[in-house]
Amino acid sequence: PSIPRHTNRLIxxxxxxxxxxxxxxxxxxxxxQEAFDKAKKENKLIFLSVGxxxxxxxxxxxxxxxxxxxxxxxxxxxxxxxxxxxxERPDVDKVYMTFVQATSxxxxxxMSVWLTPDLKPFAGGTYFPPEDGVHRVGFRTVLLRIxxxxxxxxxxxxxxxxxxxxxLLHMSEIHTRGQESPPPSKEVMATCFQQLSNSYDxxxxxxxxxxxxxxxxxxxxxxxxxxxxxxxxEGARALQMALHTLKMMAHGGIHDHIGxxxxxxxxxxxxxxxxxxxxxxxxxxxxxxYIRAFQISGDEFFAGVAQDILLYVSRDLSDQAGGFYSAxxxxxxxxxxxGEKREGAFCVWAAEEIRALLPDPVEGATxxxxxxxxxxxxxxxxxTGNVNPMKDPHQELKGKNVxxxxxxxxxxxARFGLELxxxxxxxxxxxxxxxxxRAQRPRPHLDTKMLAxxxxxxxxxxxxxxxxxxxxxxVSRAAQAAAFLRRHLFDPTSGRLLRSxxxxxxxxxxQSAVPIQGFLEDYVFVIQxxxxxxxxxxxxxxxxxxxxLQHMQDKLFWDPKGFAYFSSEAGDPSLLLRLxxxxxxxEPTANSVTVTNLLRAVCYSGRTEWVEKAGQILAAFSERLxxxxxxxxxMARATAVFHxxxxxxxxxxxxxxxxxxxxxxxxxxxxxxxxVLMLADGDGAGFLYxxxxxxxxxxxxxxxxxxxxxxxxxxSLPVTSPQxxxxxxxx
Length: 731
Fold this sequence. Notes:
Glutaredoxin; 4 domains; five-stranded mixed sheet; alpha+beta; 731 residues; 27 helices; single chain; 6hp_glycosidase-like_sf; Glycosyltransferase; 48% helix; 21 strands
């Protein structure tokens, strides 16, 4: 590669997204004091650009504007330009996204915001084309107009920015009014179910026409709703909605049939043509959702999809030190000789490519049938491509096919006169050959940043799958990642989590010069992961760490005045607002998950003040939970856990004994949203016995492994047979 003409300060950063911009002609600064001081000293406005490395339109705006020398000159002359990776600094992103959404009615990335030298926003938007068009004003024009305004009307602009800030402060407050109690769980659950049911797509599953997102928070809500209403028609519908959605997604093009794992979302109603980036947080949450579907239905199909996701993550998103990478990009070079990247190039197929790879005549099938014929029929491949031109505005997928399961195995087998077993082997061979051919293509960019929060979500996926399937290998992978977090994203002297670390040269793990401290979501998803990992491994060390982190979370983020937790800690003068998120989206919001975390923490520690905190969070979000719980399905789910009280399932037994293992298998095989598992191994000096004195009074009946179902530390009569235990867990 030629020597780059330009190099800016981003060259010293670790984030793959910031490094992608290190050779723009724009004089980019990272978010920090140096940039703020320069803006103040030179009395210049700040242009803030926020994105992430797998964001398609971020790449487009960079190609069109940030690599353009003239536009770069306008930016450098009039502004101090700052680039932020939203995955590293969700706090900065949220503050200015709140502004953009409030003023333009929409939001997204790349986010473009203009700030006064004291960081107050006054103008903003998302993607701007470089030049003026019929319907949109171009980036160059916007830059020049804003620079002009700053020269001519500085005082008005400053005054306006102060008013905007006051309005944002007022708008973004979430707090309880007085000593409110949590909203009634029954009504919240019923309303949330109704709202999901009304937005459900009966034909293809999912909860919107298009685009369609794989919202695990909705599916988890429906599973909990079913568990509490098993015998009612509503309960049956909730389960059907969740299972049908998971089935349609697994058959769709959003699922990578050749390389495993799930793409970000579908652009159409049928889960067919996706945006092709793959995010760690989707894999972690979807693995857990498919495992729950398997626990409830007993259908091996769902277990297979979960295993497929975990195979993808183990192979393609895993660092050798044990952490998980953040994402794989959607865009890549179609061939090694290509000059420009195309979306989906790594994943799509021309019909003739498949014919050439699968030319073999198939024995026993209808005369003249090749492996290619069967494969193309089953996966909806068309000679001219199977992508609707309406879903391909840039014609990047013209003549290409996104594989989607179009027929049941029974139908495909009948069509070609095959046995089911034979068909399954043929399709597997077809996928194997396409996978080998795909391995020759240039791979998409891999974002090797490792984030505590997303690693937490992925550890939960591995731990839950390992427990439910009895697969030790998955539990070990979860433990390896938790040990990685402890080693690289935790500071034992301060007891605090860090947000991110990076894959450096020679595959070592690196930290930035000034490490980014963990945010609320890092604590919450890691604590959840450690509870899941304890239930899968019964290693008490993970519990002990989880409870330490919970105390630290309380100290750093709790709002004693308005209740609930702030997303970021106090004391950062460059953050204009301390916000509380109020939307369960692609990831659940931290306050939603923390309600269940706190209730689990009580079960393992006996500290009842955490029950009170959980109730105060629900009270703080009470109005939203009663009006539009569909915006907070994970928190709506948590109202039920709060209301029904978690049941402690205590198994007294020798961890190595077969009878103990059988009882544990029984507990782990059932889906029960309000159970917490613990093993009383008789070691009175161990962590759990020290936390929970009542365990000392529980004993093994007739020397056999014995289960107790306890609520608020009061226990049922002992049972020694897995059948009886199952009956108690699934009333």
